[in-house]
Amino acid sequence: MRTAPVSPYLSADVPSPTAQLSIRQVSKVFPGKKGMVQKLRGKTSPDFVAIQDINLEIEPNTFVSIIGPSGCGKSTLLNMIAGLSPISSGEILLNGHPITKPGPDRGMVFQNYALMPWMTVEENLRFAVETVDPKISKKKRDRIIKEYIQLVGLTGAEGKHPHELSGGMRQRVGIARALAIDPQILLMDEPFGALDALTRGFLQDEVERIWEQQRKTVIMITHSIEEALLLSDRIVMMTRGPAARIDEILDVPFPRPRNRETIDQHPAYHELKVEMESHLFRETRAVEAARVG
Amino acid sequence: MTVNNIKFKRGVFPLSQQTWWQSENAKSVGLFLLSLGLFLLVWEVGARSGWFVRGVPTATETLGELWWWLSNPFFRNGPNDLGIGWNLLISLRRVVIGYVAASLVAVPLGILIGISPVAFKAFNPYIQLLKPVSPLAWLPLGLYLLRDSENTGIFIIFISSIWPTLINTSFGVANVNQDYLDVADTLGASRLRTIFKVIIPAALPNIISGLRISMGIAWLVIVAAEMLLGTGLGYFIWNEWNNLSIPNILVAIFIIGLVGLVLDNLFAALEKFVAFGRNS
């Protein structure tokens, strides 16, 4: 196991009393194969440290993006926040309470939409709403479903099944489903990664608009620098794995509501962009070099 | 250049330039009818001019018999002389009873086995061992245990049509897309709700294809089993063989194939109905 002695709060946040979500000294280790059988067959493998000593404090109503080279453990971190993947060491606190399992206080938007193919748009939302609150009245339930379908601009498509929708429309359903349960935090795992460039831009604008209305805390994983700059208040840049850390956290000072046409006129835009690009290029180049070597 | 242009246009507008007899469907129907006609012709000429072994009926003779059996499906002149309709219903009844019983066991058991990796590993040896056994190998055992030919037929259908459904159901349940399970988990869905609202619907295409394979096997097996049991389509063939009535055997083969085709298509339609854009 690699546990290089890193100073506890290196290049990351100090604990904040007002934070909604606190990630403290969190590491993720995937255990290797070291059992008797593997030893006898000579097929042991060492533990794999995916991420190491992550510290991050997220204040309420902020939009945080996590960006980093492929395979750096961004999704692992998000899955730990979601409670889908156990935390190896350290703790993640939501409103001061440690996260141990998944729960409806965190809404998740998946890269592959993860809509149930046998349910219509409306049924997908109804499944979420009824799962979270089984005793909800029919009237309230239908009002919520209608409201969120309207919010993502899918009114009229309620009765359609996911395979009848475009990728962009499916992800709208994914976002509506995550928001319909009224979570405290919205977790998005490369939500636009599977979409073409035009649809992607269109949906980014939609998320910006929805965020202005809802102002929920959002943690989004992305590969796109422009996307992070358009949507985020803070951008967390992670180093390459194994044992990925937080390299730097950028504050994005652009006023809201933001507009993709005018955002690059802000004096800080290009400086931030260059900084992110050089970080990503450096890390990606190192990943490639490690793979060749 | 002009030639290229014309070719290009034809490529772009294939439908507008086609007359009805050029379409793919028309062509395939034409080829089907042509090959059928050729087959019947060779058969007729061959049987008449003694190309085959002695006693092979002509095509017209066989078609005549087919017409006779189809136009008098329900008559009853004693146990060895039943209309083909009665025999078909007898066979279908056995298949349905054995098959439904097998499905009622296989689907719930498959779900239980698929949900639990421990159960999957524990019960897999039984399934793997019993699956490749020929259904007819059970016949003596069935006769000994049940002492009744009717129940033995049903027992053989049961035992042979249980495996595909069981295997497909447990496979489908064990391999539900992790994303769907993650969705249920993040919403905090209970285990029961996840099973009934997510796992079973997600595995439904696999379950239906298991049921479809089982139905195919049940229909294959009943004919063979009935040859040894009495009554039903299988016995009809055996009886006609004893009468050395080759046309009647051919008629029965045709009807067995036709019914199998209809049954299979029913399940194909059901598969399509639960697929919702998925391929499996």
Description of the structure:
- The complex is a heterodimer of chains A (293) and B (280).
- Helix content of chain A is 35%, strand content 20%.
- By secondary structure, chain A is α/β, with parallel strands linked by helices.
- Residues 1-11 of chain A have low confidence and may be disordered.
- Chain B folds into 2 domains: 20-56; 84-279, MetI-like (MetI-like fold), CATH 1.10.3720.
- Chain B has 11 helices and no strands.
- In chain B, helix 10 (233-242) runs antiparallel to helix 11 (246-275).
- The model of chain B is unreliable at 1-11 (pLDDT under 50).
- The A-B interface holds A 82-84, 102-104, 106-108, 110, 112, 114, 116-119, 127-128, 131-132, 161-164, 177, 181 and B 177, 179-180, 182-189, 193, 197-198, 201-202, 204, 274, 276-278.
Q: What attributes does this structure have?
A:
heterodimer; A: 293 residues; alpha/beta; six-stranded mixed sheet; four-stranded antiparallel sheet; 10 strands; globular; disordered N terminus; B: 280 residues; mainly alpha; MetI-like fold; 77% helix
Low-confidence stretches of chain A: 1-11
Question: In percent, how much strand structure appears in the residues of chain B?
Answer: under 5%
Average of the residue pLDDT scores of chain B: 85
Alpha carbon gyration radius of chain B: 25 Å
In short:
Chain A is of the alpha/beta class and 293 residues long. Helix content of chain A is 35%, strand content 20%. Chain A is built from eight helices and ten strands.
Q: What topology does this entry show?
A:
The complex is a heterodimer of chains A (293) and B (280).
Chain A: E1 21-30, H1 36-41, E2 48-58, E3 63-67, H2 74-82, E4 89-94, E5 97-98, E6 106-109, H3 121-132, H4 138-151, H5 167-180, E7 185-189, H6 197-214, E8 217-222, H7 225-231, E9 234-238, E10 246-251, H8 269-292
Helix pairs in contact in A: 3-4, 3-5, 4-5
Chain B: H1 2-12, H2 24-48, H3 59-71, H4 84-115, H5 117-130, H6 139-146, H7 149-174, H8 178-186, H9 191-227, H10 233-242, H11 246-275
Helix pairs in contact in B: 3-11, 4-5, 4-7, 4-9, 4-10, 5-7, 6-7, 7-9, 8-9, 9-10, 9-11, 10-11
